[in-house]
Specification:
CATH architecture of the largest domain: 3-Layer(aba) Sandwich
Distance between the termini: 98 Å
Order of helices and strands: HEEHEHHHHHHEEH
């Protein structure tokens, strides 16, 4: 009996030892896979980030001095309440530095939270075809609480365009056929490359300012860039 008991205890210890080794092996494999996935994620992230030169704004809508050395690049979303709030400071910057800054608008609709932001961005670009980007830009923010709650704001956007004297046929065709989706997508790609996480995100040349609701911070950044380039 003693011999059988001793043999049983020995086997039990061996089984426990094997189980422990197996667990340790699985733990090492699991941790190794985690590290591997992390490295792959980092490499992919680095590869997906392409350089963005915000000092060359291309054909983006802008206000201010086209030859200014200080470029204020605003990544915004028409359905974002914080973006609407930041517009007060953007207008104040233009009033305080009319000849020294160039304000450039970039679309970055956060469609997961703002279902009509993409359509609003498209509407503004359809208006841009007729030189009316900024008037519709202002109207979209002024009436944000109205159209953002509508179940089909396309009709409202067409009404706003008519109110501004924008020719209906080309505007409506542009909006209905989604002709500006690629323009918005290009801006979104630039925002992704800059790792933008929220709107509004503002760059004063290369200085990043998230939120844009503190005018002293914006003013200080602009003054700093002006002094650097004087």
């Amino acid at each position: 009996m003693k011999k059988d008991k001793s043999s049983s205890q020995k086997k039990e210890k061996e089984n426990k030892s094997k189980a422990r080794k197996t667990r340790n092996l699985f733990n090492r494999i699991f941790m190794g896979l985690l590290v591997l996935f992390f490295i792959i994620g980092v490499v992919y992230s680095i590869k997906s980030i392409r350089p963005v030169n915000l000092l060359e704004s291309g054909n983006h809508p802008f206000k201010g001095n086209s030859g200014a050395k200080v470029i204020v690049s605003e990544f915004s979303d028409f359905q974002c309440p914080a973006c609407k709030g930041a517009e007060v400071n953007m207008k104040k910057l233009l009033a305080d530095y009319p000849d020294k800054i160039k304000l450039v608008f970039y679309h970055y609709p956060l469609s997961a939270n703002h279902p009509w932001a993409m359509l609003a961005a498209e509407a503004s670009e359809c208006a841009n075809d007729q030189g009316q980007f900024w008037p519709l830009h202002d109207l979209l923010y002024d009436r944000q609480e109205i159209w953002s709650k509508d179940s089909a704001p396309s009709k409202l956007f067409k009404g706003y365009a008519a109110e501004l004297g924008i020719k209906a046929e080309p505007f409506n065709t542009c909006l209905d056929q989604g002709k500006k989706k690629s323009v918005i997508a290009e801006d979104q790609g630039q925002g992704d490359a800059l790792q933008i996480q929220s709107t509004p995100t503002i760059f004063i040349n290369q200085q990043r300012i998230i939120g844009g609701n503190s005018y002293p911070d914006l003013k200080q950044a602009v003054e700093s860039e002006i002094n650097l380039r004087s």
